[in-house]
Amino acid sequence: MLAWPDVAIPALPGDPRPLRLYDTSTKELRPTAIGETARMFVCGITPYDATHLGHASTYLAFDLINRQWRDVGAHVVYVQNVTDIDDPLLERAAATGADWQDLATDQIQLFRDDMTALRVLPPSDLVGVVDSIDEVAVRVKDLIDAGAAYRVDDDWYFDVTSDPRFGQVGHYDAATERELFAERGGDPDRPGKRHPLDCLLWRAPREGEPSWESVVGPGRPGWHIECVAIALDHLGMTFDVQGGGNDLIFPHHEMSASQAQVLTHEWPYARHYVHTAMVGLDGQKMSKSLGNLVFVSRLLADGVDEMAIRLALLDNHYREDWEWTEAKLVAAQGRLEAWRCAVAPPTGPNAMRTLEAIREALADDLNSKRALRAVDEWAREQQVRGGDDASAPGIISRAVDALLGVAL
Ligand code: 5CA
Ligand code: ZN
After folding, report:
1. Does residue 385 form part of some domain?
2. Full residue range of the structural domain in which residue 101 is found
């Protein structure tokens, strides 16, 4: 499906830094994407509600990765799925009397508009599950043929014991795995399953639910296998980054890795598993199911500058949980104003050290907070002492644009 419009990235002087990122699976900080082409799969939205600030924060973290890789000159292949058929979408459509397809179409468009406003670089491929039913069914069939799937009634399940490395993405103990599985779309207690953690691959038609004909019979895809099919078809095995919020570590990315490893007999599925922390509101994770949401589109409709939203989100480290507050937005508005004033004069203090500091901070596991403070220091110096370097305001504007995605 269509992504959203591309965003130009200005060229920068000086030396780019190779990006080091924390990997959930090995628990180490390691360099990423050392080849000429960098490949990333980021789990996309389930389009039943507009983009909230938690989603925006997660997609901005991967946008920073994309921008770091572009800075070192890598060719980036970035794939994102859209879970445009799944239980929560059908439930929301039923509850509101909307057609599930209309609901998905509207929410996907809203997401595109929000990503455009926030200047997020679009994925090279935005791939809907509804457009990928045949490809997903073929992967289910391959798992059946490999002896890694079995039937419960008319549904197909993945046998988690078929991958000896199952559990090595999240490293959770068995009790936690079971708890998270039940919480996040799994059905540990369904009678007829061989193992409580075995997950749905293909769901036979149910009364009143959409279904498709396929090589494994009529039905619709389970959640995890959809991302595996899309990622393997568009990126192949052992791509550089599998991304998403940390609520996707288990079961989603664990199941995805195991299914792909069984399908291809290769390891690992992804070199880095990168997970963003959860944004909260009033002491709870911001989530569609809890309904404690602040929408990007709401803030934009209220006239908030999109770059202030971006700055407010970037003033956090992607691996630390944080809470959205009005005060954070006000602070970001002040910072944006200060930066805009600082780059307005024709000259300023030398900017090369600041550019280096931004690059270094971002290359160090996306330390965007530190990168923002480096720009603050330059802006303060400009305000207090000024400078006579005619290239400086332009370098700062372009650095902030290319590396942080903020247009001044
Ligand atoms: N469609 C699936 C992935 S295949 C899904 O999780 N969709 S979602 O709409 O629920 O979430 C989209 C992305 O936003 C996921 O990466 C999720 O981890 C992330 N996310 C959801 N809530 C928050 C939050 N409060 N803070 C940060 N990220 C969040
Ligand atoms: Zn996914």
Report:
1. no
2. 20-280
pLDDT tens readout for residues 295-329:
999 999 999 999 999 999 999 999 999 999 999 99
Mean pLDDT of 52-63: 97
Residue 319 located in a structural domain: no
CB of 38 closer than 8 Å to CB of 240: yes
The answer, yes or no, to whether any atom of ligand 1 lies below 6 A from the CB of 51, is no
pLDDT of residue 40: 98
Residue 276's identity, in one-letter code, is: T
Torsion sign over Cα 123, 125, 126, 127: negative
Name residues with Cβ closer than 5 Å to ligand 2, which is an ion: 43, 227
Check residue 290 and give its pLDDT.
82
Angle at 43 between CA 294 and CA 196, to 5 degrees: 105
Residue 218: give its domain's CATH number.
3.40.50.620
Instruction: Specify the ligand 1 atom closest to the Cα of 286.
Output: 25
Mutate to test the pocket of ligand 1, among 248, 274, 288 (most ligand atoms within 8 A of CB): 248
* Residue 393 clears pLDDT 80, i.e. is over it: yes
- pTM, whole model, 2 decimals? 0.98
Determine the distance separating the centroid of ligand 1 and the alpha carbon of 312, expressed in angstroms. Answer: 19
Residue 226: φ, ψ to 5°: -65, -45
Q: Is 129 in the pocket of ligand 1 (CB under 6 A)?
A: no
User: Helices 368-384 and 306-314, interaxial angle, to 10°?
Assistant: 120
Instruction: In whole angstroms, give the CA distance from residue 186 to residue 250.
Output: 10
Query: Mean of the per-residue pLDDT values for the chain?
Result: 97
Given a cut of 90, whether residue 33 has pLDDT beyond it is: no
What length is written for the chain?
A: 408
Question: By the 8 A CB rule, do 93 and 100 touch?
Answer: yes
> What spacing in Å lies between the alpha carbon of 34 and ligand 2's midpoint?
24
Number of domains in the chain: 1
Confidence of residue 49 (pLDDT cuts 50, 70, 90): confident
The answer to whether the CB of 103 falls within 8 A of the CB of 48 is yes
Query: In this structure, is residue 290 part of a structural domain?
Result: no
